[in-house]
Design a protein that fits this description.
Chain lengths: 164, 109, 630
């Protein structure tokens, strides 16, 4: 029963911080709340015993991506509040759209039975050792190719960033 | 540790689906309601992460590592995407002195 | 021996490819020599083949390759040389060589001489395919090929629009006949499961006479023959074809290609003798054509057109012979006609050449002393075609007249009438051009000159042939052996077996009658026409029957009214109304609708990314929503 409380706690914090990302006036606050969301998601990964993903998630998202966001914002001096925001009508429309989407997704959940999908076995697949074996055995080529992707992304970023 | 793992399955899979749907919907609402490109970008990341979490959940419940491998690659792509995306934002800002997406309406006819 | 028929095809093809490819770089003088050489080579080969067949070899077959083979169908690319083919080869290459040499002189000043010789070689190539082929399909290729060469050569001087029209007319009218040939081939294949000519002949000889299937096949074949050989419904192209250079008229439209129809029927003689109805139709068509064309020829004023109608008339005469199952007679007349008609055309060409492209005989006259060599040759040709002994035409006409009198007295008299018509229009031509006092145009023209040796020598050879060619088949009255008939005898064995009652058993009185009667009238006619045409004014063609004849019985006008006008009316209707008003409006309507709709629809494209996103999200929601409902 402990884990269900943990799940609820993490979920509530995650949803709250996600909402705060949208509701914050200053973009810098949004970034910080976003980081908090990522940490709660890392907690979810641990809860699913996906330890490898939890670590990678923290390193990539919280460590790299959010820092990238912060740097961009600070270097361009973009931390401006209220200078531009959508009309109230558009905001309401956006909320209605989001809410409708949520409703539809939940409704579609009713139409199929997920209970049969679950297996009562203990899952060890998320451990670094198991996942690493699979990654280097069955997914070696995509894994190596992803390095090329990074290389090209790096070249692209450098090219975009340099002064004409 | 063993105890914790054993208890994972006590959380119904539906909870994860509902939680992830909520997170995704918040991301959608953010994309629609914001004009600041960076915040829109973050909302997109939020949607991406909700999908990741759901994939991992299914993977754990079905005892199939493919889902987690997939999440790993999504993270790889997301990292590359953010690098490029922010690079583009910088370029846009340099040429227009703003990152308001409503100003960027040259896409019309 | 096996390689020789193949060589016959290869030589002119090489000539055509060489001259056609290096049209610009080969000098004109060399082109003529080159083209003549290929035909000369062919002539030697033809002679070898001819005498080889005469001395025993019954038939030469060469299978080049397997051409069409699927399911039950098997059509090899096969050449066959029998005596009929050998004879045709001699005519094509003999006359062909002389005309090639003549063309060297005739085309000397023409810019496109190389192209001309390339076309001539192409024609020779296709003509060889036509006569060498062992099955109807290959024959058809040659048949179409000579049609193509004819088209190219009629429109050789394409700068003049009238020439192009004449070329198109020849091509289109020939297509009508070709349709008959195609239908005949389809019928042949469906009923005999083969297109091989000799196989069909042997299979068909099992059938009984008057079989409706054979009737249909032979009618279709005959339709094909009428197109190529310019017979009654389809003869109007031949006079117009005179738009081409004169050597072409001599080679293609007098000596060789137009006789392809006779050749086709002679080749399929077994089928034709099995269908008496078709033979009667051929007889009627041939007779009508011969008389009609002969009458028209009397009143024409263009030297080449007179000869063209004469050709039509002579071809009709050959068809009469075919219609009376006298295939050897038809072939013999074809053989002699090739010589003297080619001679006449070449002589006419020489006259035209001398007068700097003047073709109207009203502007001629008194040329007897100005171009004596041409005059002498023209006289020989005229005497030969009129059937005056001992020239070639006499012997061949005698053979056909004999068959006609044997067939019935009416046919005999009609055939004699055709023969007399020939005399009339030919002597009229001769007298008007050469004997009549010189016209104003001729008197004013000081450049009248005799043609060069390269033109007169081939004509002289043809003249000699026109004189002596007849002696290879002397009437039974004077000689026991008929070389020509004996040579062709094996070709028509099968068909003559099927028509025993038609065998010519002549008696001496009949023969004498056939010989003497026409001759007396001919001499009378010659005298009459001399008095009529040399001294007096031209014929009054403004009123009465003469006008109808001078206007060619209004056949061209009739076709124009019955076929050309309705087609042109329907085409105009489709162009002006259906295409312009309906289809065009419809297509334009689609375009205009799209324009109007998109003019307003494009406003949706605001360029605002947020708006697009909103639309996208609502679309996704809608999709998911319908997914749940359905």
């Amino acid at each position: 029963m402990f884990s269900i409380y943990l799940f609820i706690f993490l979920s509530v914090v995650a949803l709250f911080s996600a909402l705060k990302v949208l509701l914050s006036k200053k973009p810098i606050h949004s970034v910080l709340y976003m980081t908090l969301t990522f940490f709660t998601l890392a907690g979810h990964y641990i809860l699913l015993n996906a330890q490898f993903l939890a670590v990678v998630h923290v390193i990539v998202y919280a460590g790299a991506i959010m820092v990238l966001f912060l740097f961009t914002m600070m270097l361009l001096n973009l931390n401006l509040e209220g200078e531009f925001s959508k009309s109230t009508l558009m905001k309401i429309v956006a909320v209605i759209a989001g809410g409708l989407l949520f409703l539809v997704l939940i409704a579609s959940l009713k139409s199929f039975d997920v209970a049969t999908v679950g297996t009562p076995e203990l899952t060890q697949i998320g451990l670094v050792k198991n996942l690493g074996t699979i990654l280097y055995k069955d997914y070696l080529l995509p894994f190596e190719l992803s390095s090329i992707l990074f290389l090209s992304a790096m070249v692209g970023a450098v090219m975009l960033g340099k002064k004409d | 540790m063993e105890n914790t793992i054993a208890q994972i399955q006590t959380i119904p899979l539906q909870y994860y689906i509902i939680f992830c749907s909520a997170l995704f919907s918040i991301g959608v609402a953010g994309v629609l309601s914001k004009r600041n490109a960076i915040v829109i970008f973050m909302s997109v990341e939020l949607m991406l992460n909700s999908a990741n979490l759901l994939l991992t959940a299914f993977s754990a419940y079905r005892n199939d590592p493919a889902g987690q491998i997939f999440v790993f690659f999504i993270m790889v792509v997301a990292a590359a995407e953010v690098a490029i995306g922010l690079g583009l934002l910088v370029v846009v800002y340099r040429s227009t002195k703003t990152i308001d997406i409503d100003v960027l309406n040259r896409l019309k006819w | 021996m096996q390689i020789l028929p193949l060589l016959l095809l290869v030589l002119p093809l090489i000539g055509f490819l060489l001259l056609g490819t290096y049209q610009m770089s080969i000098p004109k003088s060399l082109a003529g020599v080159l083209a003549s050489l290929t035909v000369f080579g062919n002539l030697i080969i033809s002679a070898i083949l001819f005498f080889a067949l005469a001395s025993g070899t019954s038939i030469i077959k060469v299978e080049i390759f397997d051409w069409i083979r699927f399911a039950e169908m098997s059509i090899p690319c096969e050449l066959v040389v029998d005596r009929l083919t050998a004879l045709m080869l001699l005519i094509i290459n003999g006359v062909g060589l002389l005309i090639h040499i003549y063309s060297i002189g005739y085309m000397k000043t023409d810019k496109g001489a190389t192209r001309f010789f390339a076309y001539l070689n192409l024609f020779v190539f296709f003509m060889h395919i036509l006569v060498l082929s062992a099955n109807y399909l290959m024959l058809f290729i040659g048949w179409e090929g000579v049609g193509l060469s004819s088209y190219l050569l009629i429109g050789f001087w394409y700068g003049n629009h009238a020439n192009n029209d004449a070329a198109k007319k020849a091509f289109i009218i020939n297509r009508i006949g070709d349709l008959g040939l195609i239908m005949a081939m389809i019928l042949l294949y469906t009923h005999f499961q083969t297109l091989n000519i000799s196989e069909i002949a042997s299979k068909a000889s099992m059938l009984e006479s008057g079989n409706p299937l054979v009737l249909a096949i032979t009618i279709c074949l005959f339709i094909g023959a009428t197109g190529k050989s310019a017979q009654l419904p389809l003869f109007t192209w031949l006079p117009d074809a005179m738009a081409g250079p004169t050597p072409v008229s001599a080679l293609i439209h007098a000596a060789t290609m137009v006789t392809a129809g006779i050749y086709l029927i002679a080749r399929s003689s077994v089928l034709f003798v099995l269908s008496p109805i078709t033979l009667n139709i051929i007889l009627i068509v041939g007779t009508t054509t011969a008389i009609l064309a002969g009458l028209i020829a009397i009143f024409q004023t263009d030297i080449k057109k007179i000869l063209a109608y004469s050709t039509v008339s002579q071809l009709g005469f050959m068809f009469m012979a075919v219609g009376m199952s006298a295939f050897d007679g038809a072939m013999f007349h074809l053989f002699t006609h090739a010589f003297f008609k080619a001679l006449l055309f070449l002589a006419a060409g020489s006259v035209i050449h001398a007068l700097s492209d003047e073709q109207d005989i009203r502007n001629m006259g008194g040329l007897k002393s100005k171009i004596p060599v041409t005059f002498a040759l023209f006289v020989i040709g005229t005497i030969a075609i009129s059937g005056i002994p001992p020239f070639a035409g006499f012997f061949s006409k005698e053979l056909i007249l004999g068959a006609a009198f044997h067939h019935s007295l009416t046919m005999g008299l009609l055939a004699t009438g055709v023969s007399l018509l020939t005399t009339l229009y030919m002597f009229r031509l001769l007298f008007v051009v050469f004997f009549k006092p010189a016209s104003v145009a001729v008197q004013a023209n000081h450049h009248i000159h005799e043609s060069p040796a390269s033109m007169t020598i081939p004509m002289s050879v043809l003249a000699i042939l026109s004189v002596i060619a007849g002696f290879i088949n002397i009437p039974t009255l004077f000689s026991e052996t008929q070389l020509f008939q004996d040579y062709l005898q094996p070709v028509f064995t099968q068909s003559s077996q099927l028509t025993e009652h038609h065998l010519l058993v002549k008696n001496a009185t009949e023969e004498w009658l056939v010989l003497i009667l026409p001759l007396v009238i001919i001499f009378g006619l010659v005298l009459l026409s001399y008095r009529r045409f040399v001294n007096e004014k031209p014929l009054n063609t403004n009123t009465g029957v003469f006008k109808i004849m001078a206007d060619k019985f209004y056949i061209d006008e009739l076709y124009d009214l019955l076929i050309v006008r309705p087609i042109s009316f329907v085409s105009t209707f489709f162009r002006e109304v259906v295409d312009q008003k309906i289809i065009n409006e419809f297509i334009n309507g689609i375009g205009n609708t799209t324009l109007v709709v998109s003019k307003y629809l494009r406003l949706i494209q605001t360029g605002n990314a947020g708006f697009y996103l909103l639309i996208m999200v609502f679309s996704i929601i809608a999709l998911l929503f319908f997914n749940i409902i359905l």
